[in-house]
Amino acid sequence: MNFVIFCLILMVTFGVCVGIPASLKLHPKFKYADGGNGIENQYMVFFRNGFTKFGAQMHFYKLKSTQNIRQGHIPKNSPCTSGTMISDLISLTMFYVISCPSVRILHLLLTDYDIKKIVQDTVVSTQQCSGIEPYTLPNPSNLYWNLDRINQENPSPLDGFFSVLGNGVAVDLYIIDSGIRSQHQEFTNRIDSAGYNFVDVNSPPEDDHIEGHGTRVSGIAAGSTTGVCKMVTIIPLKVVDQNGRGTSSDTIAAIGKVKELKAIRKRPSVINVSLAAPTFDELDKAVTSAVQDGIFVSVSAGNNGVPSTRQSPARAAMAFTVASVDKNDDLSPKSNYGPGVDITAPGDDIYSASNTCDDCYSRGDGTSFASPQAAGVAACYLSVYPTATVPQVEAYLKNGSWKNKIGNIARGKRARTPNRILRSNKC
C-alpha cells in the first residue's frame, strides 16, 4: 500500500495521517527531526515574533471550531485513534504542541502568516554516564584522601569512595622516572616488557632510587589500590639513578622512545614526567613533539614556590602542567604556580607504593605526586574515548575540573594560577 492511499484511509477513518510526506519535509517553515530522535505525529507550532497571547487564543478558537480539533493535555505515547489535539499556549517562547494532525492541517498551518515555523517534537532523556568505574577505598580510607578528593566536589567530609571515567584497558602509560619495583603488588601483570633503562642499558628499569620516586609515581597513577587508573598498562622508562639524578638527554631520549613505541603499538598513550630541570629548549621541544604525535604529556609544575615557567619541561607550552593542593584545597606552600599551570591536584601526604618491598607503602609530598593523578585520569579517559586528541583530553580535564575551590590564590603572586582542581569522574 503506498503512502498516499494509507494516509487517505487514516484521514477518512480518524481524520489524521501518521508519517510525513517528502513534500512537507521540504517546506521552508517545517523542520523534521533527524537522527531518529523525533516523536512521531507530534509537532511544536511557533507563532511569529511579536504575536500576542490574545492572538493565540483567537488562533486556537478558529482551529477548534473549523477543524474538529480538541485542546488540552496531550497524553504521552497515545495512538492517533482519537483525532487531533493541541496543547495550551506555552508562552515562554510562544508555541503550542499539536498531536496527530492530518497533512491537510499541517499545510494549513504552514501557509498561515501568523505561524513562524513547525518543528517536530523530539525525545529528551537523562544522560546516563557509561564507563564510570566506582571503587570503595580500603580502610583506613583517609590514607587515600587524594583519590577521595578528586572524586567529590568539596574537600570534606570525605566519603570513602573513588570513581573514575574509564579503567585504562588498552592504554599505555609511560612513566619517565627512576624506574619501578616491578614485583610490587600494586602492579601485578600490568608492567609491559617494553620498558627501558637509560641509566644502565644492560639492566631492567627497576627502581633503586633512595626514595623510590618512580615506584611512588607509578603507584599514584596506576596502582591497583593507590592509583587512579587501575587497569592501564605501565611502561617504565628509567632516566634517574639511585641518587635522584638524571640527564636531560636521557629524558629526551625516553620521550623519543615513547614516540617509537606508540607508532609500533598503535595504542592511546600518556606520558608522566615528574622531573624538573633548568629551562631547556630542547627538552621542551621533545614534549611538544610527543604531543604533536598524539601523546598526552602530564608534567609536574615544580616545588620551588616560583612560577612554573622557570623550569623545564613544566614551561613547555604543550605540556599539561600540574601544581599541588593540600587537604584544605589551598595551593601547597612549595608548589610552583602561575598561568603556565593547567590544573592542580592533591600533592600533600600522598600514599603510594614503595620500592623497599613488594607490599611496602610510603607517603610523599610535592607536585611530583600531583602530576600522575592527572596522567591517570587522562589514561582512563582514553580507554573510553581511544580516538580522542590531546586537545580533547586537555579540554576534558580542564572543563570537568572542580572550579573555584582553591582558597589562597585570589591575590598576590599566585593570583594568575588557574583555579581548577582535578576531577576523576566527569561524565
From TrEMBL:
CDD domains: Peptidases_S8_PCSK9_ProteinaseK_like
Keywords: Hydrolase, Protease, Serine protease, Signal
Active site: 177, 213, 368
S-adenosyl-L-methionine keyword on record: no
Signal peptide from the UniProt entry: 1-19
Superkingdom of origin organism: Eukaryota
GO cellular component: extracellular space
Family annotation (PROSITE patterns): SUBTILASE, SUBTILASE_HIS, SUBTILASE_SER
An example molecular function term from Gene Ontology annotations: serine-type endopeptidase activity
Gene Ontology BP terms: proteolysis
Keyword RNA-binding: no
UniProt record similarity statement: Belongs to the peptidase S8 family.
Protein name: Peptidase S8/S53 domain-containing protein
Organism whose genome encodes this protein: Owenia fusiformis (Polychaete worm)
